[in-house]
Design brief:
The structure holds 2 protein chains of 2 kinds. Helix content of chain A is 36%, strand content 19%. Chain A is an alpha/beta fold. In chain A, helix 1 packs parallel to helix 2. The model of chain A has no long low-confidence stretch (mean pLDDT 85). Chain B folds into 5 domains: 158 residues, Four Helix Bundle (Hemerythrin (Met), subunit A), CATH 1.20.120.160; 190 residues, no CATH class; 54 residues, no CATH class; 169 residues, Heat Shock Protein 90, CATH 3.30.565.10; 149 residues, SH3 Domains (SH3 type barrels, Roll), CATH 2.30.30. Helix content of chain B is 46%, strand content 19%. In chain B, a hairpin with a 2-residue loop joins strand 16 and strand 17. In chain B, helix 3 packs parallel to helix 5. The radius of gyration of chain B is 34 Å and the shape is flat. Classes of the chains: A alpha/beta, B alpha+beta. The interface between A and B is medium-sized, with 31 and 33 residues. Chain B: Its EC number is 2.7.13.3. Chain B: InterPro entries: Bact_Chemotaxis_CheA (IPR051315), CheA-like_dim (IPR004105), CheA-like_homodim_sf (IPR037006), CheW-like_dom_sf (IPR036061), CheW-lke_dom (IPR002545), HATPase_C_sf (IPR036890), HATPase_dom (IPR003594), His_kinase_dom (IPR005467). Chain B: One of its GO terms (molecular function) is ATP binding.
C-alpha cells in the first residue's frame, strides 16, 4: 500500500488451505486490497471450501475496485478442486496459463 | 462402519443377486416367459453393476454392463431367450460370479473366457448385425482409466450403441412400465451452514465423495458471497446444486451427507436418467446433462458439463450453447416440465420400491456363536419346561386349572421360541444346489456331454454348518456323475436313451435327517471293472464272494478310480473316499445303488444338527428310547395270526395282505438276547432311507413328545443304532433311535459290521 499507483502485488498461497487457514488468508488478502494482485497457487496441495470462498470474495472485491485479480500459477490439485466444487476461475487465470 | 465393511456387505448382496440371477436364468431356460422373471434377472445384474461402480471395480462393471445390455434386449422383446441365448447367459452369470469373487478375494479370472463372452453377448445384443462394426462397445480397457466414475463411463456408449433402437418413450406410461434403463439421477441442493465447517466438516470432501457415486455435475451458487471486507471468513456462503447419476440412488447420496446433514440445508430428489438421455439425444447434445432446473438455465447459461463442471459458465461458451439450443430451448423447457412430473412419479415409485425391498430382506449379521448359545439355552428351557410340567403332574395330580393352563401356555411359548431359534440357523440348501448347476454346466462343456440338472427340494432347510460343508463333497460327486456316470451323447443315442443326460439332485427331510440324493441316468457302475480293479489293488481277494451292493461300495475305498484315463475333472483316485469321509465327518452316511445301464443313485443322509425332534417315546427292555415321529408310518398291536416265521430267526408281520419284516429293536441293540414275543409289544411301521418298510418291535409306547437333540458323539461317543440322545422331563437321558441304521442292521449285517464297513469303506 506504499505506492498507491497500482503496484502489482503478489501472494503465494500456502500448500494447505484448509478450514484453519481461511481467516489467515482473509487477513492477507485484506492487506493487499487496492492493488493489482497476482496469486501464485502453484504450491497448493489442498484447498477447502472456506478458503475458496475467501478467494472468490477477494475476486469480487477486486472487481469492484476495478483492479486486476489473477491467478498467475495454479497447481493441478487447486484447479481440480475448484472444478469439483463448481467454482469457475477460468476468467481469473493469467493469459499465459489459459488453455 | 468403515469402507471394508460396506464392501463386505456389497459382496454379500452380490451373492444374493447372483443366486437370484441364476435361478431366474434357469427358470427362463425351462421356458418361463414371465416378464417379472426377466426383470428379476435384469435387476440382479444391474444391482451388481451399480454396487461395483461405487467401489470402482471396473472389470466387474464393464462385464455387468455388457451383460445387462443383452438382458435389456431380452426384456424389451428384441431378443428371444432361446436355449442358445440362455447358454451364453448362464455362462456369463458364472463369469460374473468369478469376477465378483476375484474382486473380493483378489483371485484371477479367465480373461479369455470373459472376453469371448463379452463378444458373444454383444453379438446377441446387436441381433443380426455383426458385432463391433459401429459399436466398439464398452471394452474393459475403456473403463479402466477413468476410475472415478466407472459406471457412467460405460453407460454412455451403450445408450448410443447402434444395437439400441431408440424406444418410443411416453411419460404417461411411466408408472406402469419401468424405463429401459433405470439409472436414477439425484438432484441435490446442498447449502452448508457455518456449523458444518466449525465442526471440521469440509464441503469439498463431501462433493468428492458424491463424485465417486457416479457421473456428477456441480453448480456452485455464489450469490450469497459478499465482498472481502464484509465477509466472515468462517461463515458459509457457497451453496451447491448438484446432480449425480448413480445406481446407488437417493440412499447412496444421502449416506454421503450422513455426518453433515444437521449442519446444512439438504434437499435430495430423484429424477430419471432415461428421460434425460432421451431428451439430450434428441437435442444432439449428448454430453450435457439436461438442465434439470430451469432456474439454472436462467442463471446465465450455467449448465455444468460433466467433465469440466462450470466451464460453460464462461460467457463465450454460454453464448455458443445458447445459440445452438436457442430454437430448442422451448422444447427443452417443456420436456423439463414433464421431467418434473416424471420425477415426482419416479420418486414415489422408488420410495415404494425401497419399502418393498426393506420389507423383503432386512437382515442383520450375528456372530454364529451367539446364535449357538441362544439355541443351547432354549434347549435347556425346553427340557426345564418339560421337567416342570412333569413335577406338577406328579405332585398334584389334580392340578388347579390355572396352573395347568399356565403350563400349557408355557409349553406353547417354549415351542414357538424353539422353532424360531432353530429357524435362525437353518437355511435352505438352495445356494449349494445352485452352485452345482454351474459345476454341471462346466463339466458338461469340458466333457462334451449334454447334461440337464434337475433339482428338487431346494428349500429343504438344514443347519448352516451342514450346508457349508456340503458343497465340497457334492461338487465331487456331481463331477463324478457327469464325467464317469453319463455316457457320451452318441453312445446314449445308440442305446436308445435321450442324448441329453439327466442328473437329479434332491433334498428331503426323512426321519429327522436330511437326505440328499444324487441320481444320474448313465451307465451305472461297471461291477466287473470295479471288482477287477479292487483285486488289482489288493483291496479284496481274487476269489472273494461279494454281493452287488458290496462291490458298489468298493468305490468308496481310498485310492480307487475306475476311469481308464485320468482326467482333469475327476479320477485322481481321491474321489469317493474323500466324499465319504466328509459326509461321515458331518455325522452322515452315504450309500450307493446302481443299476447297469440305468444309472446310479448316491444317497446321503445327514443329521439336522442341534435340531429338535418330534418323537415317539417308547420302552424297550426297560430302556426309554425315542423314535423320530417322521419315520413312523403307523403303529399297530400285532395279532398272533399276523405273525409268520421266516427262516431260522426272521419273522414277518402281515399288514393288509403284504408282508413286512418284523425287527426286534431290543435284540438289534443288544438290550436282550432272546426275541421278545411280538404279542406283548407294539409294532411301529417305519419307512427307512432305502425305501423299504419295516415293523420295529418295541415293548410299549409312552407317548409323543418334542425332544431336544443332544449329540451323543460330542458328549460321549458314537453308539451304533443310536442317532443322538435327549433329556426327558424327569431328567433321565433317553436315546434317540437311528431308524435307518436299525433297519440296515436287520437286513443281515449287524450294527458292528455297519461300523466297520463305514470305517474302511
Amino acid at each position: 500500500m506504499a505506492s498507491k499507483k497500482a503496484a502489482q502485488k503478489s501472494l503465494s498461497l500456502a500448500p494447505v488451505l484448509d478450514l484453519n487457514e481461511a481467516t489467515a488468508l482473509h487477513t492477507q488478502l485484506m492487506g493487499l486490497k487496492g492493488n493489482p494482485l497476482v496469486i501464485d497457487a502453484s504450491a497448493v496441495e489442498r484447498v477447502g471450501a472456506l478458503c475458496a470462498q475467501v478467494l472468490m470474495a477477494g475476486a469480487k472485491s477486486w472487481e469492484e475496485d476495478k483492479q486486476p485479480f489473477t491467478f498467475g500459477k495454479v497447481s493441478d490439485p487447486f484447479m481440480k478442486t475448484m472444478q469439483l466444487i463448481g467454482v469457475n476461475i477460468d476468467h481469473l487465470l493469467a493469459q499465459e496459463i489459459r488453455q | 462402519m468403515d469402507m471394508n465393511e460396506i464392501k463386505e456387505i456389497f459382496f454379500q448382496e452380490c451373492e444374493e443377486q447372483l443366486a437370484e440371477l441364476e435361478s431366474g436364468l434357469l427358470k427362463l431356460n425351462d421356458g418361463d416367459r414371465d416378464p417379472e422373471t426377466v426383470n428379476a434377472v435384469f435387476r440382479a445384474v444391474h444391482s451388481i453393476k451399480g454396487g461395483a461402480g461405487a467401489f470402482g471395480l471396473d472389470d466387474l462393471v464393464s462385464f455387468a454392463h455388457v451383460f445387462e445390455t443383452t438382458l435389456d434386449c431380452v426384456r424389451s422383446n428384441k431378443l428371444e431367450p432361446t436355449q442358445d441365448v440362455l447358454k451364453v447367459m448362464l455362462k456369463s452369470a458364472d463369469v460374473l460370479a468369478d469376477l465378483t469373487n476375484a474382486a473380493r478375494d483378489g483371485g484371477s479370472v479367465d480373461e479369455a473366457r470373459s472376453r469371448t463372452l463379452i463378444r458373444e453377448l454383444e453379438a446377441l445384443a446387436n441381433g443380426e448385425t455383426p458385432a463391433a462394426t459401429e459399436a466398439p462397445a464398452p471394452k474393459p480397457a475403456a473403463a479402466a482409466p477413468k476410475a472415478a466414475a466407472p459406471a457412467p463411463v460405460v453407460e454412455k456408449p451403450a445408450v448410443n450403441d447402434e444395437g439400441f433402437q431408440p424406444i418410443p418413450f411416453s411419460f404417461g406410461d411411466f408408472d406402469e412400465e419401468p424405463a429401459a434403463h433405470y439409472v436414477p439421477t439425484c438432484q441435490i441442493l446442498f447449502k452448508p451452514k457455518k456449523d458444518l465447517y466449525a465442526k471440521g466438516n469440509e464441503a469439498v470432501l463431501l462433493l468428492r465423495d458424491l463424485s465417486r457415486l457416479g457421473e456428477m455435475s456441480v453448480y456452485c451458487d455464489m450469490d450469497a458471497l459478499p465482498t472481502l471486507d464484509k465477509m466472515n471468513p468462517e461463515e458459509a456462503y457457497f451453496s451447491w446444486k448438484i446432480s449425480v447419476t448413480t445406481d446407488k440412488g437417493e440412499d447412496g447420496v444421502r449416506s454421503v451427507f450422513e455426518f453433515a446433514e444437521w449442519d446444512c440445508d439438504l434437499d435430495i430428489h430423484t429424477i430419471e436418467e432415461d428421460v434425460v438421455s432421451e431428451a439430450t439425444d434428441d437435442e444432439e447434445l449428448p454430453m450435457q446433462p439436461v438442465p434439470f432446473d430451469l432456474s439454472i438455465l436462467d442463471d446465465g447459461g450455467s449448465v455444468a458439463a460433466e467433465d469440466e463442471p462450470a466451464v460453460i459458465e464462461s460467457d463465450a461458451a454460454a453464448a455458443v450453447a445458447a445459440a445452438e439450443t436457442a430454437s430448442k430451448v422451448a422444447q427443452v423447457a417443456s420436456r423439463a416440465a414433464d421431467n418434473a412430473k416424471a420425477a415426482a412419479a419416479a420418486s414415489a415409485a422408488s420410495a415404494a420400491q425401497a419399502n418393498q425391498a426393506a420389507a423383503a430382506g432386512q437382515t442383520i449379521r450375528v456372530d454364529l456363536d451367539r446364535v449357538d448359545r441362544l439355541i443351547n439355552l432354549v434347549g435347556e428351557l425346553v427340557i426345564n419346561q418339560a421337567m416342570l410340567s412333569q413335577s406338577v403332574v406328579e405332585n398334584d395330580s389334580n392340578g388347579t386349572s390355572s396352573i395347568n393352563m399356565g403350563l400349557e401356555e408355557l409349553q406353547q411359548l417354549t415351542r414357538e421360541i424353539q422353532d424360531s431359534v432353530m429357524a435362525i440357523r437353518a437355511q435352505p440348501v438352495k445356494p449349494v444346489f445352485q452352485r452345482m448347476a454351474r459345476t454341471v454346466r462346466e463339466i458338461a462343456d469340458i466333457t462334451g456331454k449334454s447334461v440337464r440338472l434337475i433339482t428338487e427340494g431346494e428349500n429343504t432347510e438344514v443347519d448352516k454348518t451342514v450346508i457349508d460343508k456340503l458343497a465340497e463333497p457334492l461338487t465331487h460327486m456331481i463331477r463324478n456323475a457327469v464325467d464317469h456316470g453319463l455316457e457320451m451323447p452318441e453312445k446314449r443315442e445308440a442305446l436308445g436313451k435321450n442324448p441329453e443326460g439327466t442328473v437329479r439332485l434332491t433334498a428331503k427331510h426323512r426321519s429327522g435327517r436330511i437326505v440328499i440324493e444324487l441320481a444320474d441316468d448313465g451307465a451305472g457302475i461297471n461291477r466287473e471293472k470295479v471288482r477287477q480293479k479292487a483285486i488289482d489293488n489288493d483291496l479284496i481277494a481274487a476269489d472273494a464272494n461279494l454281493s452287488d451292493e458290496e462291490i458298489d461300495n468298493l468305490i468308496f475305498h481310498a485310492g480307487f478310480s475306475t476311469a481308464d484315463k485320468v482326467s482333469d475333472l475327476s479320477g485322481r483316485g481321491v474321489g469317493m473316499d474323500v466324499v465319504k469321509r466328509s459326509i461321515q465327518a458331518l455325522g452322515g452316511r452315504i450309500s450307493i445303488s446302481s443299476k447297469p445301464g440305468q444309472g446310479s443313485v448316491f444317497t446321503m443322509s445327514l443329521p439336522l444338527t442341534l435340531a429338535v425332534l418330534d418323537g415317539m417315546v417308547v420302552t424297550v427292555a426297560g430302556q426309554t428310547l425315542v423314535v423320530p415321529l417322521t419315520a413312523i408310518v403307523e403303529t399297530l398291536q400285532p395279532e398272533a395270526s399276523a405273525i409268520h416265521s421266516f427262516g431260522a430267526s426272521q419273522r414277518l408281520i402281515s399288514i393288509r395282505n403284504s408282508f413286512c419284516p418284523l425287527v426286534d429293536v431290543g435284540r438289534i441293540l443288544n438290550f436282550r438276547n432272546i426275541q421278545a414275543n411280538p404279542m406283548d409289544g407294539v409294532a411301529l411301521l417305519v419307512e427307512s432311507e432305502g425305501g423299504g418298510q419295516r415293523a420295529l418291535m418295541v415293548d410299549a409306547i409312552q407317548g409323543q413328545r418334542q425332544v431336544v437333540i443332544k449329540s451323543l458323539e460330542a458328549n460321549y461317543t458314537h453308539v451304533p443304532g443310536i442317532a443322538a440322545a435327549t433329556i426327558l422331563g424327569d431328567g433321565r437321558v433317553a436315546l434317540i433311535l437311528d431308524v435307518d441304521a436299525v433297519v440296515a442292521a436287520s437286513r443281515g449285517h449287524s450294527l458292528r459290521q455297519d461300523i466297520s464297513l463305514a470305517a474302511t469303506g
